[in-house]
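We modelled the chain as a single entity of 174 amino acids. Its sequence is:
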Amino acid sequence: MKTRLILSGLVTLMLAGCGAGGDYADLQAYMDQVRAKPKGAIEPLPKFQPYEAFTYNASSLRSPFQPPVKIDLAVKQKGSKVVKPDETRVKQFLEGFNIETFEMVGTLSNPQGMFGLVRGAGGVHRVRVGDYLGRNDGKIVSISEGKIDVVEIVPDGEGGWLERPRSLTLKERS
């Protein structure tokens, strides 16, 4: 009996607490505003501007983060029309990346010859003499214990082409 009395008292207090105050003026104002809107009127969709594709045309230019190459005009090499990249050749995977992103990390040798290991393009790759590396038609001409020699074919800026030697030296402790 005593527990029933306490329980009924608690229920009464909770119900009284829910109804206390009764200030629902903001809710009532919102409901009046919603009811005042005309029924069936749907707002039109907003007009979007069409997407204009952007084509990046400076990918073949020098990176702005590399220092410019100083050219002495008196000693400037002239390109030749004989040296030029082979446009009919099928491009290899490692030609899709700048040669600056690669670093030599080791060598392998077996009866077939010496192979170089280069890190870049998302992993470590095995290369051999005759493979191509970098975006400037860089052909690997020799592999030794400490470096990989590459000859790139680059434009001279006057319609000709130049052969530019580069080397990837062994990076130790990487």
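As a brief sanity check on the tokenised model: Residues 2-19 form the longest helix (18 residues). The mean pLDDT is 81.
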